[in-house]
Amino acid sequence: MSLFHPLTVSKVKKLTPNSVAITFDVPKDLLQTFAFTAGQYITIKKEIKGEELRRAYSISSSPKSAGITIGVKKVDRGGFSDYANSRLKAGDILEVMPPEGRFVFKASDQAKNIAAFAAGSGITPIMSIARTVLDSHPDNKFVLVYGNKSNEETMFYTDLTKLQLDYTNRFFVYFINSQARETDALFGRIDVSTVNYALKNKHKDLQFDAYYICGPEPMIRLVEDTLKENGVVEENIHFELFTTDEILEEFPVAEDGQTQVEVTVDDETFSFSMDRKMLVLDAVLKENIDAPYSCQGGVCSSCIARIKEGKADMVKNQILTDGEIADGFILTCQAHPLTPTLKVDYDDV
Question: Which cofactor is essential here (predicted)?
Answer without folding.
Answer: FAD
